[in-house]
Write a structure and sequence with these properties.
With 221 residues, the chain is α/β, with parallel strands linked by helices. It has one domain: Rossmann fold (3-Layer(aba) Sandwich), CATH 3.40.50.2020. 40% of the residues lie in helices and 22% in strands. The chain contains seven helices and eleven strands. Helix 1 crosses helix 6 and helix 2 crosses helix 3. The chain is globular.
């Protein structure tokens, strides 16, 4: 068995159990982008569960050390990556900075907040990677501020083709603790979905922009 699989399945089980991830192919959601989706993800819920929060922090630290080597700094992406990033930085004894979604409208009008004199290279912490647009916007802001981005870690990724192509084009390596494929495997095991749901859930991932559902509810991942 892939040595990564047990932690990935464990995190998937956590996310499903606390409803940080919800799978509802028969009653899909509408994302802020306008996409209709059978999955809704809010990883900020993990911060309210100390055991899970600690486990995610530990897995992030292990992934960073194994995949990228110890960086000079940790950067969190607003808003979901800030708390997890700060926890990781504390665990690793590293300086922490964070990236706003937009530049501050007053003062120095910073997009990157923190003391950038504390190091040159950085690993970025995200909670979720969907299309990759906001994640890579943060990477661009860090590079513009003079940082070398060693890579990015996230709790979860949908593994969308659009995101994979965007990360490759930006020359950013992404390591996610768990992903959509593993989540579906765990969801079947724990009876969150049935075998009959799988075809619909898999087809969404193949072409999310054109996937359609019946009744939709507003949700912003």
């Amino acid at each position: 068995m892939d040595p990564r699989l047990d932690p990935a399945l464990k995190i998937a089980e956590f996310l499903l159990r606390i409803k940080a991830v919800r799978l509802e192919p028969k009653k899909p959601f509408t994302w802020a982008s306008g996409w209709i989706s059978p999955i809704y993800c809010d990883n900020r819920k993990t911060l309210s569960h100390p055991i899970m929060r600690t486990y995610i922090r530990q897995q992030f630290v292990e992934a960073i050390n194994n995949e990228f080597g110890k960086p000079d700094m940790i950067a969190g992406v607003a808003t979901g990556g800030i708390a997890h990033g700060a926890l990781v930085a504390q665990e690793m004894g590293l300086p922490f900075i964070y990236v706003r979604s937009t530049a501050k409208g007053h003062g120095l009008k910073n997009m990157v907040e923190g003391d950038l004199t504390q190091g040159r290279n950085v690993v970025v912490v995200e909670d979720l990677v969907s299309t990759g647009k906001s994640s890579l916007q943060a990477v661009a802001a860090l590079r513009d501020a003079g940082c070398e981005v060693k890579g990015m870690v996230s709790i979860f990724t949908y593994g969308l083709k659009e995101a994979s192509e965007a990360f490759a084009k930006a020359k950013v390596r992404l390591y996610s603790l768990t992903d959509y494929h593993i989540l579906l495997k765990q969801a079947i095991t724990d009876d969150y979905i049935t075998e009959n749901d799988l075809a619909s859930l898999r087809s969404w991932r193949e072409d999310p922009a054109n996937w359609t559902g019946a009744t939709t509810r507003k949700a912003t991942p």
